[in-house]
Amino acid sequence: MTRENWTSSIGFILASAGSAIGLGNIWKFPYMAGENGGGTFVLVYVLCVIFIGLPVMCSEMLIGRHTRRNIINAMGKIERLSANQNVRFVMSALSAGMAVAFATMHAWLPVVLALAGVYLFAKKGFAILGWVCTIVALAILSYYAVIGGWIVEYIRLSLTGTLVPEAVEGVAAEAVAKTSQTAFDAYIADPWRVLVGFVIFMAVTGWMLLGGIRAGIERMSKILMPLLFILLLVVIVRSVTLPGAYEGIEFLLKPTMDAFTPQVVLMALGQVFFSLSLGMAITVTYGSYLHKEHNILKAAGWVGVLDTCAALMAGLAIFPAVFAVGLAPSAGPGLIFGALPAVFDSMWLGPVWATCFFFMLFIAAVTSSVALLECGATVFIERLRRGHKRGSRRTAVLIGFVLCTVMGLLAVFSTADWSHMPWLGKAIEASMGDLAKGNWLDTLDNFASNWMLPFTALCTALLVGWGWTPRRAGRELLAQGEDWRIAPAIWGFLLRWVSPIGILLVFLYVAGFLDPILKKL
Ligand code: PHE
Predict the structure, then answer these.
(1) What pLDDT shows up at residue 218?
(2) Pocket test residue of 275, 309, 367, 444 for ligand 1, highest count of atoms within 8 A of CB
(3) What is the pTM of this model?
(4) Residue 486 three-state SS
(5) Nearest-angstrom CA–CA distance, 209 and 393
């Protein structure tokens, strides 16, 4: 292999890791682990990455590289290549199954969506899957940007030295953590303050896509991402040396049988797709930049390892501190905003570290949000064609931007609770049934990440595994000229059997359909 290929392979891995590593790792992973039994969640998560996430990631990269189109045309093209034209009816059947599962949870809006899916899959086939991926990506961006906005606010707080309110400076870490948590709760309860950060974050995302400084940011993120890892290490060192930290390490790394519930498994599965950027058209798009000389297995493996390391490191940075300062690990989305200020406060040059940390987190979040908006935009560009003219990039980005901003407002105004929009709160509780959480951000996140992502991933696995088939697709898995049969064979097996059955079992488990069997065991 020539030197050049090697370098560009690394470039691809770093770019994909840049899209994968984001708020999902540092903000979401720790609080999900905290809410779902710590070590048990982590163990299930890692197993899901290996047996379900990675095979699906390889498939998405393959689809992208083979078709080199936007997601909707790509899915359609792979379907036409399929040996088996009936996969689309399997899709309809799955959609019907989802409708039943949602009905048991009284989630009527999702039931309607799933029923529409039954019809659309049968009629239009896999292009619909492309649309679903795009819509899910935009929906996720709408609240991702709200969290991005929180980070903007925390950069401001650390820059002005007010991350930790003056009154408590120099007192015990416990008190600092309590005040930071209260300050965070007060912050998200004030929608106008949240709005500022959200708008700034969305504006930076849109501007980056339009202004063409994308390349610059990507180059910058190649330096900043490794720095983020180093900074995480620094925080870990401080966090594990706090008195009482050991309990946190144990919580994160020691699985217990009692914590093992259907909910934990579903959450871990959803988190795998969210964190690896799967099921949202992104990895397909990135895959289309891959050359034939690249080895997809290796690339996917590296992205998986880097992403999982980032998540575990974030856990190691947060939990020892959470336990040391007496916060509840199940504090939810505000976990890092309560715990981290206390860690920084106990460090020499705390405000400087804090500013750097939140800034890097901002960069990591922006590289991800740009990717999310981009996939919507690419679809709109190709679909806004008039005659032979392609739609303009500007209009496409604008449409995506406006859609996400309007949807994001819902999350902004309901992050604390529904008190700013009580009528909407009632409507959502009625239409989302058991999927509804106390606010729109958590409700949408629950629906999009824990239900839609595993569903789109399951469809992708079936399309590639049973339609295109590993025998034909697998030839492209390795770099040209490489002959290493066993790996594609293992991938094919995982993709055909292990990933789809795994995802299906989790769905059945959560909907309670496995209870009678489990009781007998
Ligand atoms: N994987 C990203 C994260 O962990 C989120 C994301 C999903 C980014 C999809 C881009 C596309 O934060």
Answers:
(1) 66
(2) 275
(3) 0.93
(4) helix
(5) 9
